[in-house]
Amino acid sequence: MEIEAAVRNAQGGAAIDNLAAAFGVPPDKAEAALTAMMTVLASRVERNTLSRGGLADIVALLGDADVGRAIADPAHLATAEMADSGNHVLDVLIGDKHISRGIADSVARQTGIDAATLRRMLPVVASMMVGGLQNKTQALFSQKLRDVPGLGVLLPLPGDPAPKRYDAPSTTPGSGEWANNLPRPAGGAGGGMGGATGGGVLLPLPGDNLPGTTRRNRYDDLSDVVRRGGTQAPGGGSLGGLIRSILGGLLGFKNRGVMSSLIYMFVVRWLLNAGKRILSRIVLGR
After folding, report:
1. Is residue 86 classed as helix, strand or coil in its secondary structure?
2. pTM
3. Contact 76/82 with Cβ under 8 angstroms?
């Protein structure tokens, strides 16, 4: 799984050690817990992407920098603030605290770490996974979705290093200095609303970084378009299918059709798990 490797290599390659230190467990057990938790969380992402609403919720997570903080902030992994951001991820991916506790209990049996510690660790691992996805998908979305008509998804957030349509005004609207900070159209010194001369200025376009406004989520527009459905991706196919392919490539699942995915998740995986249990009993004699 590409994202698991990205998480392991985060924080200068010390992500596992930092996670272990934050929760007071040996690094080898922290590594085993990370692998087990990310495997389950990746399967939850796969399941959620089978519906437009679920995929839109995943896209919204990828645009919210707060929920992926853990991958870049090793000093505060065990804090309440980090738990809150990770719990938001779990709310989207799982939505049931009893299931989350069940995941922690299962990983406890696999690793020997006590379940109470793993219940505190799970939101942090969820945040780290989303942070890894955010780092990877930003460039992929920019490259593959740039030509989708009507999307403001790739417009920069405040503070992002991206070309500006106009400079931030230095005084209040209506003053001459404020107007002079806006770009003039090519072909005239004054620049009206399409004429070569005049005292007007260009109006900002939708999505422009207006003074005094902020946009918390980078992918609000994309999430809305995915939720409505019906938009084609560049080169054909659905926009949702393209995004699901990107996520599948990073998380290790295939972009099957909905029915094929359901059959795989609920039948094939059940048979595989049953086979593993039977093999374990044969090998261990119990």
Report:
1. helix
2. 0.71
3. yes
Question: Which tokens go with 3?
Answer: 């994202």
**What is the token pair recorded at 219?**
């992918």
Question: Could you please report the per-residue DSSP string of the chain?
Answer: -HHHHHHHTHHHHTHHHHHHHHHT--HHHHHHHHHHHHHHHHHHHHHHTTSHHHHHHHHHHHH-GGGGGGGG-GGGTTSHHHHHHHHHHHHHHT--HHHHHHHHHHHHHHH---HHHHHHHHHHHHHHHHHHHHHHHHHHHHHHSTTSTT--TTSPPTT-----SSPPPSS-TTSHHHHHTSPPPTT-SS--SSSSSSS--PPPPTT---TT---S-TTHHHHHHHHH--PBPTTSSBHHHHHHHHHHHHHT-----HHHHHHIIIIIHHHHHHHHHHHHHHHHT-
Q: Look at 7-11, 93-97, 101-105, 177-181 and tell me which has the smallest mean pLDDT.
A: 177-181
Per the DSSP assignment, residues forming a β-bridge with 126 are: none
**Residue from 81, 40, 85, 97 nearest 61 by CA:** 85
pLDDT tens-digit map of 182-201: 343 444 444 333 344 344 44
